[in-house]
Fold each of these.
Amino acid sequence: MTDRKLYMKERLASIKAAFIKAKTALIKRGAPKKLRLSYHVVWNIFLLVVIFAVIGAAFAGGVGAGYFASLVKDEEVLSYEDLETNIYDYTETSDIYFANDVYLGKLRTDLEREEIALKDVSPLLTDAVIATEDEYFMEHDGVVPKAIMRAVFQEVTNSANQTGGSTLTQQLIKNQVLTNEVSFDRKAKEILLALRVERFFEKEQILEAYLNVADMGRNSSGSNIAGVQTAAQGIFGVDAKDLSLPQAAFIAGLPQAPFGYTPFTNKGELKSEEALQPGIERKKEVLSRMLRDGSITREQHDEAVSYDLTQDFIERSSSAAEQYPYVTYELERRAVEILKYYLAEQAGYSRQQVDDSQTIDKEYTLLAERDIRQNGYEIHSTIDKELYDAMEKVKNNFAGFDGNRTVERTNLETGEAVNVSIPEQVGSVLMENSTGRILSFTGGRDFEQEQLNHATQSYRSSGSTIKPLAVYAPAIEYGLIGAGSPLADVKFNYNGWQPANFVVGREYGLIPARTALAASHNLSAARLYGRMIEQGHNPGEFLEKIDPKGIKDEEYSRRAFSLGGMDKGITVEENVSAYAAIGNMGQYNEPYMIEKIEDRDGNVIFEHKAEPIEMFSPSTAYVTLDMMRDTMTPIGSGRTAPSQLNFSTDWASKSGTSQFEHDNWFIGTNPNITFGIWFGYDEPSSLNDGSRRAISLWAQMMNRTNELRPDLIDPSNAFPQPEGVVNRSFCTFTGQAANDACSKAGLVSTDLFTSAYTPSGSENGLIVTKYVSKDGKRFVAMDSTPDEFSSNGALLSPDYAKQMLYPYGGDSSKLFPEDNSFFSNLLVAENRLEDDGSNPGSVTASVSDSKISWTPSGSSDVVGYRVYSGGNKVAVRKLDESLSASLSAGTYQVVAVDVAGKESARSNEVRIGAAPKPKKENTQNEDNSDSSSPAAATPPASGNNSGNGGNGNNEEDEEEEVESGGSDESSPPADEEPGEETPDDPPEDETPPSDDPPEDEEPPADGDNG
């Protein structure tokens, strides 16, 4: 017989004995028989009640057991492994870090949670939780029958006092395995699973899991939180192991009504005093239970109850997404991309399969987005916090941004057009050349107003920053040019596409490639790009290596691509990475922002590995860098940058302006880093002086980052010149080896070339010749043109002129414009000043003090003027020189000279100084004349190219010539030195044309003609 049955038998026997004793007492007292019978009836009735109660209980128990069995009959019996997976499969927020493990914060999530081990939790908190949620936790086997019956009775009777009947184990099952559905079916399953969990797991394991999954309301940033560590940090700013007794009691009371007891609103603001009271009262209740259970003393209880806990609530804090929105969202976006491939590979898919299948890509992107919010990854980035903060501060304080623009957008709710004010935006990227690490970036002006990351997600026209990448470096790589090779900057029309320089009417003629790049001329770049395409090259093949997402392959064949003509465009990150490749001697490293990702157990599931590929050869990269060094010189479009920098390093840079000045860029690279910046509006709009402002902010950001990291921003070393780069002399205007004509014309230059392409071949494009100047233009001289009116030069052969204008053709006379002093002695065959067949028209002379002046000849073929004193030529003036000469006393006449060498009739005679006194009559015979008198000179006949006789000399003419001292043609007046004149120099009051380009480089002409 069991103990329980024995116990029941003994209890019944004792009850029967009590009844018999009572009956005997009644008999002894002589009680009436009727009363004695009543006791007998009562006893029998009692026995019947007991019997029926036992039978009813047995029946009820059987029915209850049967009902319970029916509720759980379909429930799968979970193994230990299944239960372990489910119990510990709670979501944990992923953490993000700046470079060097500097903590940034948590990624966005619906529920923040940080896992903690039981040993790291204050005993005060564990005691408070057990006393409040499950006082029999250390004793029961997963359920407490008495508590369950009490809860059922309260539910059936709809009692106002609902004490609950779930143990910590049951609550863990409800949170981690089952749903929150309120039903007897779920409750039955909960009981069954709780019993099974208690069988497999230790109490400490169950308690630890509960402490990590319990809902805790909100933290001081307004985020939903779970787990005691997250609550301790988010409410009191301490770790769970450092909680005080009042703090521990407050947290232990939260799970009953997390959002009712939490001290913070959904905006992270502290609730009102009245709204805080429920949580404070709950704390007191927890303390009372701890006192009842003996966890704390009365003194501890009273002190904790009276403690003003509100002073411990931390002030509102900003989440990572609030403090660093651009960084947080960018890291999340990149981490999802990495996890997508990781999860797909875990499932057996290759990276290529993911890329080739939209279905697989979408599936694992969704899985990655969920995974990153639930599995507590640690994401370590490359962003240097100090540099990022510094650049943000410079951006926020920059006073050079243009004003807001009003644009029309569609209201998504109403569908109506509304006017919206948008700011000028900025994007920048600072990248390490040797690795591709993104050290810092600028995502935009104001994240709340515009969430687009303008450094990594905004696709814009590159403007002229495309020229080194798609034009000059490819041409060097193909062996078509060196740094000094001449390019034709002459207008053309290609199937309706008519690009222009920044100054629309300006043509620079033949200019060195390095000048064309530094000054960012459009016509020369467009011609060179077209030349490569016509010769069967694909200049875009190098840019394809960086895989720009916004550029389609067919765009490279369009001629306007050379000037930044793009359908979608390129991001700042992509553009900077391409320049970083040039700065890294042609080796391209994929840009990256995430160094590594660890799972919640500390396993590294991803770590970036640099895999450089050659974009350009080292020699091509160096020659391109050397050309870009000139951008910051006086001839370059970035010449304002050096004066704004507070340090000096080996910069190679390029500016860029897109069509209509919708975009402005400036990118600079040195041996360590590359930094690029972009200005523009999200709705394209013309910028005001955008290039200057972009350069200014670029310089300010570099100055500040240099103050923080001079080792990085201002390296002591310069770009090293690799093997395969040579200095070679060449004919400046052809780029080939110089011949005698080139040397005599003074057109030999020296510049950098790759050893694969050096100047060679015979120079046959130049012919030594003479030229004359008229109205600022140069014309081929005739054989009969007097030497004093011509200059030595070189004539470009028609065939070579055609070659230089390939493939678009053009006006060969524009190859050597007068304002291009670099080729001042060159001209083309078509430039000839035709002889009109007549003598030039005469001029009129006048005198003022010691200066003789004359009017210009009306003939179109005049090339200069001669001044005579008698028969002696005393001064020469080329056509483009001044129409005057300062001479000593005497009489003078002026003639015009045409291109054929013919002279006009003499001008009127003018005198400088007083007339000579008359001579006394000579008394000597003619035979006795003074032999010391000057011999009479015969002046040239008017209009006769021989220069002799014709106008009948007289004595007066002879005397005047003697007085003027003009008898010796080789000895002109002291203040007039024809042999020393420099007729090519302009008058003092005339400024020669500047070779400097405009401050801004040229935007590309519209068109995608290819």
Amino acid sequence: MWQRDMLEGESMRESRGDLWWIRRKGRRDYDVLRGQDPVIEPGELLVGKQTRREPTAEEQVRLEQSRAFMGTQPIITGQTGHMAIDYATLLAKGCRGLQQELRERHILELIAPRERARMRPILDDGHLSRLEEVTTLGLRRDGSEFPMHVLMTEVEISSRRAFLAFFTDMSDRFAMGSMLKESEERYRTIIENSPLAFALTDPSGKIVEVNPIFCSMMMCTSEDVLGRRPQDLMQPEDRHRVDDHLPLLHDRGSDSIQARLFRGDGTSVPVSVFAIELPDGSAMAFIEDITERKSWESMLCEREEALRKSMQKFQAIFEGAAVGIITVDLDGRPIDFNDRFVQITGYSPSELRGLRHEECIHPDDAVKCRDIYEALRAGTVDRFEMEGRYVRKDGTLVWAHLFSSLLVDSEGRPEKVLIIVDDITDRKRMNDALRESEEMYTKLVSAIPDMVIRTDMKGTIVLVNEAALEVSGYSREEVLGHSLFSFVAEEDRGRCLNNAVLMLDRALGPQEYRLIMRNGEKLLFEANGDVLRDADGEPTELVFVCRNITERRQMEQRLREADRRLRILDGITRHDTLNKLVALQGYIDLERMGNTDAKRAERLDSMERNVRFLREQADATREYQEIGVGRPEWQSLREIWAMAVRNAELDEVMVEADLEEVEVLADPLVYKVFHNLIDNSLKHGGKVDRIGVRTERSAGYLRIVYTDNGEGIADKENLFKRGHGTDHGLGLFLSREILDITGMGITENGVPGMGVRFEIVVPASSFRTVQ
């Protein structure tokens, strides 16, 4: 027989064969007591009890007879103990009379009136020839009724027939039966209404009882599971674990395990099973659906994993951050800091731990820092920002931007302060430089005599300087917000728009446009444009610097006209001079005819040399006047060399050339430089039979190296001076002048006796590789 009950502060005594299952306060397992008096504290649960087997009727009669003759007939049995008194004493106490009074009364008077009619036939002589047992109601002296058990028979005492009856007060036993029935009903109610599924197995391990929650959880009926082993409802991998736990259940008397059960719809449900083994080998199990718990556990695991990863990320950020990070208590004492903060302050970690945070800050800024700590402690602020100066250990200052946040504990109380320290020393320096640059830019734009115009990417004017307004005659309001191209003369507008687009890809250099002044006059301007870009390289604005070249163009025109006239005059003068020299040469030749005077012949030779010199000088002046007349242009180095070779009388001289595919920016007469080098080798190099030219790269420069295998040059100091040499002395002098126009230079560094070695150095701006 099983029963559940709640007992508080009582001691229950039963026979030595009783077993008690008690769940103690605050525990999930159960104590199993045998033959002991369990004390149930308030709030503890008496889970179950097994009472030893009740004796049969015959065994009960023999026991009652034995106890009667021994004077220990049990009358009342209760939870507080066992008492044994005879019936006469019981009735005497109940009726408050004497035993003598009882002996004088008829036995039917001791039975309740409503029971006497039923009892009378039993007391007839014919019925008491055998042992008779009956349960009826007794009558006390005060008229109250009570249930009693009567065991009666006829006996012979001293050859006299007598009536022997054993009376047992059944009040407590009836009360116990009522309590037992109530307990069983309570047990059944608890099991059927339990929030946990319940299953009972017999000693063979088969299910013999389940509650409705079990059927609901498993989506089945009780008939679907009765007679089956619990393991048959589990997933295969869980069956083995449960079988492995059975020895623990036998040893401990109870055990708990988690498993997955197959439900009626084919799905599985995770459960936690608490099993209790009973003395007869059966077991009862309390089963909890832990789907939600598993979900929470999974969520908790995910959150713990996320927290772990978050902590790892935070630690990685903390240690590897480009900014200093420090946590301090509410008094400003460091708790933790990263390596970057150590670098910013210049103190060692051990030194920092001995300082307050404000002690690292410049005194002028520390006052504000202390005020902020006070506000944090008072709870008036929970975060702040400030710029301040840290004083490094070596005394130097570091500008920093401080971001601070108040950190609270689990109860929301202020605990510590997190401070992020961004070293902005370089930024402050750059800001100062930027401010100075902007100030200088503003002053330059204001002071520059040229027009400075800035537009957006649509060409709308957003800035003009005073010079632009002064030259054009417009007011600032008349130009700001208007298109720049509306001020360009119609004949130049299309080209200006085109060039503005091309500017996005490459620099165009100076361009000339006619701009319309407020008075309608069109003036010629030389415009240099550029693109302003953001940090990502995206174009944001256009800027133009325009110089009024109207007067310059007029002057250039006058200079060209004057130069044309001078050239005409020079040509006429040179032509007339050459004619006179030809005539003079003719007279010299006539004087030589028939001359026999040696001194006279010597004078004629001197005159002839002077005539030849004057003719060469005239030719040289014709070449020199052409230098710088034409604009420098990009020319192929290989083609320049080929032209110089074609115009030279090389005869059997071998020419070697190893030139890169490059173009040089030079005067159109640059080929004469190489022509002069070849001519000097042929005229003054001695026995030259090989000349060569090659290119080399060095430190961003292009070197053009010319060599021959002649006698070389000993006098290098005066080599490029005007008048030096055996001829008119203008060849190398003119060569250097031609190269100097575009920044090129020429030197000779050969070894005398081993040929010449001329180097022409071309700067990076004056050569480009041909693709």
Amino acid sequence: MECRTLVLFILIVTTIEQVVGIDPRILSDSLYLSGKQKGNDVTLVNGVTKSGKITVLYDSSSLDREYQLELLTAVQMAFYNLNEGDFLPQYIDLGRMDPPLTTALLTSTQWIINNRTNAMVSLLEPQALTQFIQIYDQFKSRRVLKVFTPRLVPKNTLPKTSVQVLCLQMSEMALSTALLNRVEKIGVKTLIPILDRDDPAQLEFLQHFIAAGHHRTEPIGVSSPLFVVQGEKSPSLQEVLNDERNSGISTGILLLATQGSQTVMEVANESKNILQMRWFSPNLMQYEEWALRGPESSNLRSNATFGIYSVHFVGTRGWDNPSRRKTLRELTHKTEASPRILSSILAYDAAWAARNYVKNNLDLALPMQGMSGEVSFDSDGYRQEGLYFGVSAVPELVSPLVTLLQPSKWILEDVINIVETIEGQYLITEYNVATSSMLTKEELTRFASGTSNSSDCQEHFMEIMTHDPFSQIATTYLFKKENLPYHLLIPNQHGYGITFMCRHADESRTTMKIACTPGGRFSDPVKCFRSHFASREKRQAQNRYRAYYGYNAPQSYANQAKVLYSRDDSNAFGNAYYGGQNGGSFNPSTLPTLTTRFDIPIVSEDVTSTTAPPPPAPKPLPELRQVLKASKPFVGSCVGAATGCAMCVLVLGRLPLGTLPPACTGPCFVGVFGSCGALLGRAFSETTVICTELFRQGYLDIDTFLADAEFGRQIIQQSPMIHKGYKMLATPLVEKMRQSKEFTEIVATFAIPWAKYMKYTLGYSDEFSWTGFAVNVIGSPICFIAGTIQGWTNNFQRENILPTGDNLSTSTTALLTLMFIFLLFQQHLQSRQKYRNHSS
């Protein structure tokens, strides 16, 4: 009998695993909550009786269902990575329990108390979390429950209970300060708030928003709020949105409503003032699918006419770390939610902080290093400082006039650093405008023609590799010469690359690559480097390309590729969008040998600043609206001004000057080799020396070169002495590499593995190189010694102890470095000999 019972139990476990996809290891401790069944689905709560009890609470039936499920994916990944065999979380989905929400919360709260849960990760909406705490308080539990949440919860709306809520974000005042900064920058004088009826959390945020505005030099007026109900198009809302007095840049809409956001969007679509108003929302991105659904509002790109601006909390000091980049890459492959992927990182840290609290009983007031940077909480349960990304909705702008190479539905506008003072005020300590590069058809065609090298060029191609500013995943776009748009806009926060290709009659190729590395800050201009022209011979039959997106991609690699867009493979103008498994471009799995290199020096006409061409003739209004919409997101592009300039060439002169941002009334400079970044002719940049020469000679691909440049910037900030010594020692090597191909091959044997190791260290690759690791371990102290000795040499020259001269300084430093290393090695040998003598 016992045997048959055991067999029956195993069959039940296997069946449940197949139905709901639960790990069979946790089913032995699973607990069923009384709830309804949906088909074959059964409401489960996965619990454990081992050390540490954490409950994850979410609601798959709420308005922000997609957002909560994205956060849940990050939480599951965190617990999977942190699992050491002694811990398993408990998941409760309120959406699969008996309605209404109050009943589901009551059942789950009772279970949490009876199960003696130590900590909880809440993915619920703030209003639902408030209800949970109110119900928890009714049980009069003596156990203090720590609730970690990646979402912003207004603390003043929470009851005073034994529940302590810890937000992975800053407070509402900080969020209001970041949002007000944008309102002030673009000159909005009056805001009209729109709220849901009977939502105390939204009223609380509005009060914080108004209070934050009182500390500004020019307070922004806030009118009486409008209250909306889902499905009811109130006359007052229609009247406000259609009132001519509210049109113009000085009036904005502060959208706080969530339930009624869908109705607001439908009314706004019918408004004739839609283009003139500025829209702001602190949390629309979380309810994007709900607010923008419908026959005419099926996605955000079709609603970009709103120009909706929102701010997104990213993290604190140390937020851009290698572990975060690797996690971003994994999460992007699971959810592809950009820029909401930033919230997923906060959800990962919420699970990680709860785990540390339960397992190690850590003091949460002390700083801990998480994926989103330094994590610590003040007495109110918020982070005290942090960084916000300002983002705007963008249209899917693809036309012969202008094409926007933006993988995400939102574009990065600005970066805002905020810190809380002792007096409780919030100050903006640093503000950077996100830049973009503008490429013209004329200059791109000129460089593409340079790859011909003969008259038998059959077809020109151009690949542009850029990065999503939020997920940092690379995306490659393919263009043909004949259907290049007149202007290309590229976000350049993480650099980009351009590859020009020419296919000849004998099926050989000539290529030339340009890599543009970003500056140290978001608003710094990019700097571009050009490789040699490289001629590649005809491929063998087994490596022939096959037709793919109008471009011949290798069979083996194309099968592994992942198309980033679910729509047609190419747009109406024949341009393709594609990406590899890690966001990379399509490249042959095995490249043919390089037969010839054409070292064409950079001439002066290649380094130019091109002024904006005269404005084209006026076009019909629909296209003009598209251009105006595209001009909004690119604030301060190229020149880093406070308000937009990158699209001046398209809008200047076509609209009354009063409707343009102030910076667009002056001249603009465009071009990848213009003021957005200079094509450098010297052998090295501020960050990399040998890698630049290897890229120039065709040994490094673009994304590896961009990663190495970023590694160099970090070295400059963290260990300037190492960079100083590296630059001094590497410069003569580069000069020798330019003179001898054989010497370049020797340097490449250790420099290329080192470049791959740097890319791995930054989190941009999963390929570890032991050779590169060894080069870094050995080379770093040598460079530090060289940099230190060079500093001494320079001081001796200033004191006239040594003669001056760059060559003499370099030679002296190199000689002293070698002597110092020799003395250290000799001292090491003597110490080993003494140790052996002592042992014997």
Amino acid sequence: MSNKFSLLVIGETGCGKSTLINTITNYFLNGEIPDKIKVSIGTKFINSNQNVKSSENDSKDRTKSQTDLCNEYSFKKDSKEFVFIDTPGLSDTRGIKQDDINIGKIIDAAESCPSLSALLIVVNGTVPRMTINLQNVITRLRGSIPDSLLNNVFIVFTNCLSHTRNFDINSIEINVNPEYVFHMNNTAFSTDPKLWDPTSVESLKLEFKLSFQTLDRILECVTKMSSVSTKDFGEMKAHRHNIKSILHKAKTDIGNLQKLQDSLSQYQHQLEKANNDKESFKNYTTKNTIEKYELKDAPYHSTLCSTCDHVCHNKCGLEELSTKGDNAFIGCVAMSGTNNCKICPSKCLYNVHYHGRKTMVKVNKTVEQELTDMKEKFLKSSELSSEFSGKILNLDSAKKLASATLNKMTDDIVKSCKELKKICSGFNLVDELQITLNQMEMEAKNSTSFDARKSADEMIRTIREICDKLNKEESLKTKKKNITIDESKIKNDNSKKQYVDSAQQKQDSNPTKDSNQQQANLNGGSLKTLKCPSCKNNFDFNKDKYEELKKLGQLIKCKSCHTSKNSNSNVTDKLAKQNDPKSSDKKLNCPTCKNDFHINKDKFRDLAKNGQTIICKSCKSNKQNDPDSSDKKLNCPTCKKDFHMNKDKFKDLAKNGQTIICKSCKSNKQVDSNSNVTDKLAKQNDPKSSDKKLNCPTCKNDFQINKDKFKDLAKNGQTIICKSCKSNKQNDQKSNDKKLNCPKCKKDFQIDKDKFKQLASNGQTIICKSCISSKK
């Protein structure tokens, strides 16, 4: 057996992987609290003091993965070498593209090792429930761990001990041996050493001792188990790359196919007025054209985006690069020296770009030419060739051809997925694509660019089409097992009980004095004896804090009474409060630090009306102290209430001379602007819907209108346009229409100004078109 053991460390962004690596460093290098603490990865309070190469980002930003590269930390003990491979965090706030990049880096790091001894999955044990981000991490992990490594999976819960863990271990959906489940809590790396008093130091020393005992058990388990070859990671990488390439090509093809289907649907509406389906279809397919984009071979290389299927820099001046996402792409004209492309509709990162001898060409083809091309390109199998061997003579056969084409395009994807599931049974492409869809929809809602939102909506529609087809493949579905891990078999350290017992005895001997003395030491003040107004008992309290609270006029109680009044810190009470319909508080998740917090419901409504971003008190305090805050405080001219707006966005709107109002007033003004993509599609496809889908003759965009309103306007012979164009028309001072009220039916209608003058000069009574037609 080899004396070298490699352990891959993976987990969610901010779960405590870096803290674990620092604890491991102290374990092997005999670190001690408080003066001999070893730090491999710098924290907010302690800089790195070990000569270890690291790619850590700003340690103060907890929402972003601190590790951008896979770093190896090698230690020796008793003639054995242990190599810990720290990997980038998953569910990074930089988005789904960064997650895909990080998954690739993790698989590359695993493949670079000849063998792996263990896979350490690090989970924040204080998380009480399954969040969207954590579900994303677990889904991606299950689809990235080959079956050959499942017996070597360890779970390390951070920020907790076994008796304080909130996380449900069964929600990970990986059947882990209970002996391979561990707990650690090291607050030394998340607190300021300047505030450590003697009591704090003793507590931190005990945490170190418990963690070192846990590491003893981890290494003992690792040395006893057999290492696993990483060749499966290489095969998984090849299959994933193949699937990604096919999806990249399919996104362009399916986008063009959807345009064809839209064209056929448009023809279907026109068909109601036609008598002869075949003759009408022939005329339609030869006269009507569709616009599409095709990648054509070129004698030169260009910079292309694999996400947007867009040529970002035609005839790129950089030396041709063979690696996708190479750092050299930052120097491309499309990036302008930044990390994001300035040409992409979605402003993608440089690392999703590549060089290819292709160029994107806009092609206008008749529907007949497109149907012919589709037959030649996709329907080469004998079965489909025979079915569509003749000309496409009617709408029904054309729609069947489009449906058959889409089915054929998924065959290669399904084939690669089946091969991948042989190696990794937890892989589920539909689940991964669904996560991608959810995150894309969230990003699209937050986007302020109309072009970016439109591009994202088209991409969402394409991916959902692929998902729907793949979802029908039973062989690709992962059968969920009811996994139950016997937590009674999870081993606990003996010293944990000693630690709890000794702490309890110390608290029982003099609970109030010890806790208050510790608090006084931390605050650097002395104690003052007070009498509790509730229980009438004497207690000690920090003098400085007493003076502050006295100035504010707050009632000061002993810790026991104060705790009983504010007992909502308990998990059970929290849940009861959340489920209480009479509770005046609302539970939210802070968009900055991603932690849950409570806010008064009335206050929440006021802030939401003003369109303010609602964050927790801690982040709000940090924001107020930050002179570089990117928000600007304004007063809404409509509702007269204050609201906040991003400074850059404010400058853009101010340049355009737009009236800047709060989100609440904006939503009241334009109710339809924030309509959800999914609801729109569902509404369009609902036969019982009271709305009718039309195409605006001015801007050529689709819009919805109430069927009854449509009939009224059609009777009056008015040109029906979308709200946006209607608004522009009303604001246009050069508008040639005049609004009148019909003296007969008492309804408003529009008439050309010149025609109005002519009729008025002749002394004619001017009535609406509907009344004119009924008169005839």
